[in-house]
Amino acid sequence: MSTVKTLNLTLKIWRQKNNIAKGSLETYPISDISPDSSFLEMLDILNGGLIEKGESPVTFDHDCREGICGSCSLYINGEPHGPSRLVTTCQLHMRSFKDGETIYIEPFRAKAFPVIKDLMVDRSAFDRIQHAGGYISVNTSGNTQDANSIPIEKENADEAFYSAACIGCGACVAACKNASASLFVAAKVSQYALLPQGQVEAKDRVLNMVKQAEKEGFGPCSNTGACEVECPKGISIENIARMNREFLSAAITK
Amino acid sequence: MENSKTSIFRKVLMALSGLFLVIFLLQHFVINSLSVISPDSFNEVSHFMGTNPLVQFLLQPVLMFGVVLHLGMGMVIEQKNRKARPIKYAFSNASANSSWMSRNMIITGITVMLFLGLHFYDFWVPEMNTKYVEGNMSGMLDGEDSYRYFTELQHKFVSPVRIGIYCLSFIFLSLHLLHGFQSSFQSVGFKNRKFAPTIAKLGNIYAVAIPLGFIFIALFHFINSSH
Hints:
Chain A has helices at 39-52, 124-131, 154-164, 171-175, 182-193, 196-199, 202-216, 226-230, 238-253, and strands at 7-15, 24-33, 75-76, 79-80, 102-106, 115-117, 120-121. Chain A is of the alpha+beta class. The radius of gyration of chain B is 20 Å and the shape is globular. At the A-B interface, helix 7, helix 8 and helix 9 of A face helix 1, helix 3 and helix 7 of B.
């Protein structure tokens, strides 16, 4: 019978009491972690130990733990959602790390994402960007035309679907050297711009969403492509080019 | 008016001025190449560029404006970049998701601008002095019946230190262009799945070939002067 080799790790975790306190990296050794456990389960084990010792557990965001909700964040070993590609932190498994490794865990850092406590940040800036135009104003009184009755090019439907896959986790902001939200805004702009229902408000949408992102304090896009690489849903930076086109066209004609 | 204060608008200005400078650089390279192929042709073209009113009083100011706009916007954007993340990460693995060139445009850009200072000191300032301060528009060597441009060029490429600085600067220019060329097309919204591979290929060829060509020209004149 084979035995699964467990992992002994050193965790360097950002601890910060509240949104105004000065935080620091604290060291926590942790042992006997199964390679099959998820990253968040590993943190649960750590927290269990801390609670038993009467210490404050590490605060971090999580919800569905299925890679859908976009709640989990964490900047792990210098990358948002850790070293694996196309996964959120909750889908990251400990087999991605080596026995004896030191793992750095920090919150997503941006002026627009202030730390609430430890590893939890306030991402409500994304909600405000959505409120600025990330919707279509449809009369839902009961006589709305069925969406399936409007013919849409397959290519556009697919593109819109890929853009709509954005879960708004903020990894794009965390990965970007300028903490830019361009990929998030571009995905939201694109998913509507590509569909006939989104055309009516297309100009206002892109202008208002871009301006709101600026207001929130997100940085400019340097086209490094880091966001695309780190996005757990594989949102393409092609969306950013589309957003730029939409913005320029709206700014000139509106 | 409010739209012109957005980062997208500023990046578009950066991109357009950058693409304009890319075209200018190509033109500069073609003229410089003549100094290797045919010194007489180099002299003729240099004299035309240096005395043609359209080039001198329209294109030259436009070029200056392009350089200043590119530099100015670069500085403004860099400031905004830094403000967006006041607390840095303790541990960052940026090379896992982006190229060094794309993350360090400000370093390569400032280096190229410093080089431009030297280049102006070497060529543009003496040229302006000869033509518009001393009032000598003949383009001729003192007391001789031949143009001065090729001779002046040769004199500048004698010092090994200067050659070293020129070569190093062109390496930085290459690094700047490796990201800047294709980034410009993305900023103006021209990049999509169809065009992206061609833009990337064209950008890489330009970013390597043109600076390498300038390095070759500098080394060619340096080696010739030492014989």
